[in-house]
Amino acid sequence: MSDLNFFGHIIDGEEVPSVDGARFEVWNPWTQEVWAEAAEGGPDDAALAVASSRRAFDEGPWPRMARAERAAAIHRLADLMDERADDLATLDTTNMAKPFAQAQHDVARSIWNFRFFADHQRDHCGEVYPMDSGHHSYSEYGPAGVVAAISPWNFPLMMATWKIAPAIAWGNTCIIKPSEDTPASVTLLGRLATEAGFPPGVLNVLNGHGSPAGASLTADDRVDRVTFTGSSTTGKTVMASASSHLAPVSLELGGKGANIVFEDADLDNAVHWAVEAIFRNSGQICLAGSRLFVASAVYDEFMDRFVAAAEALTIGDPFDPKTRFSSLASKKHFEKVASYVEGVGLEGGKILTGGVDTEGRWLVRPTIVTDLPLTASAYCDEIFGPVCVVNRFESEDEVVSLANDTRYGLNAMLFTENLSRAHRVASRLRAGTVWVNCFFIRDLRTPFGGVGDSGVGREGGNFSREFFTEPKAIVMQI
Ligand code: NAD
Known about the structure:
There is one protein chain. By secondary structure, the protein is α/β, with parallel strands linked by helices. The chain folds into 2 domains: 5-253 and 454-475, 3-Layer(aba) Sandwich (Aldehyde Dehydrogenase, Chain A, domain 1); 258-436, Aldehyde Dehydrogenase, Chain A, domain 2 (3-Layer(aba) Sandwich), CATH 3.40.309. 39% of the residues lie in helices and 22% in strands. α14 links the parallel β18 (411-415) and β19 (433-436). α4 runs parallel beside α5. The longest helix is centred in the N-terminal third of the chain and has 23 residues, at 100-122. The structure holds nicotinamide-adenine-dinucleotide (NAD). The site of nicotinamide-adenine-dinucleotide has 31 residues, from α7 and α8. Nicotinamide-adenine-dinucleotide (NAD) is lined by residues 150-154, 159, 177, 179-180, 209-211, 214-215, 218, 229-231, 234, 237-238, 252-255, 286, 382, 384, 410, 450, 455.
């Protein structure tokens, strides 16, 4: 196996194997082949990574650097990412079968994460409170310390950079642990940080599985912040672990997004976004519109168009420019999604189109399901695959209550040409983000996060500043 690519840890600016030499296989889910290996991080590797980031924070220049200088360093990294954009996209596509054009889009957004937070911290201002007593209070936002960031496999580079960028921009040092399913692009990012001249330990990459690699980070009392994106179940474990040393957590977790199409919607637009919302990235999106509610008055017309659009998606090799939809990210995940699809009939549902691939690929075709009881597992659970469960509704009150009847609350979409209804319903939906007549558009200044099982806290703009700094009040007698 000596000719395989190898993705090591990046610690103190050097790419290193695990202390005990352990490695794991990295798969290409489209070809169903092992194409690389990565270092299997254990407690000793995690301890080294934390010690390095601790040193870089306590003794290194990064937290004390002029804001403009730090911003310039981060822009240098973004420039290098720009130069290597297609390599980064190739790694994500190879690693998880994301269609290449979608991977290129994710890389562009990843670069923007760095540029945005570099400028955001450089240009920020605190608050000043002139007091009636004659005192003068003001706020200061200093870095929090060492950040442990743990990311999932569905947007390997984008989710990682969404955490790393604000963490380091605000003067922290950071250890990122990417998912064991997709170590490649984040390791290349770590190599680029070294090339960009980042001081050692500012950005360390720890490869390996959730336990022990991730768990060793969250339990380490030298870590000051834990930011995690992943499943709700793991999120609870991460929160419990971080609580042992009172490290604040930011948790971006699962979802079961409601997508509502009112009778006055622009149906062309609603069909376009309904397809994007559940079939982009093969449905492996926390924000997926996996529960679709369609007004009875337009149900038949909408469904005819929606099914036709789903069936028109070109399925195939993720590197083929014509491909819009490809296999799932791993065999394990394929088996999970397939088991939900195979259970639909048993739970009383009807598959209008799609189903599990019959040619041995780890692929579930764009699947649209109706007639499922509201208690069915495929309706209630996050499947995290290309499975859309559709219901019809009669009234605004009814659909708001259906949409909110979930333990998740990450996001919702609604389609209507009635402005008052758009505002009214958006306000009533229990979700961290509501998209009106669109999907997946983000302004990085706005809060991002979820309600209930979808998460704890918000990131984005000043919300990231709150989390990644220790805000301080300074009170002066004049
Ligand atoms: P996961 O919870 O299995 O793993 C996420 C990360 O946590 C991985 O890096 C994993 O190695 C690590 N991990 C696992 N156990 C751990 C432990 N005990 N301690 C520390 N780290 C541990 O999730 P996944 O399957 O990689 O990702 C899919 C999930 O992520 C879905 O539920 C999806 O909705 C969610 N997600 C949420 C958002 C969001 O912004 N809310 C974005 C993307 C994905």
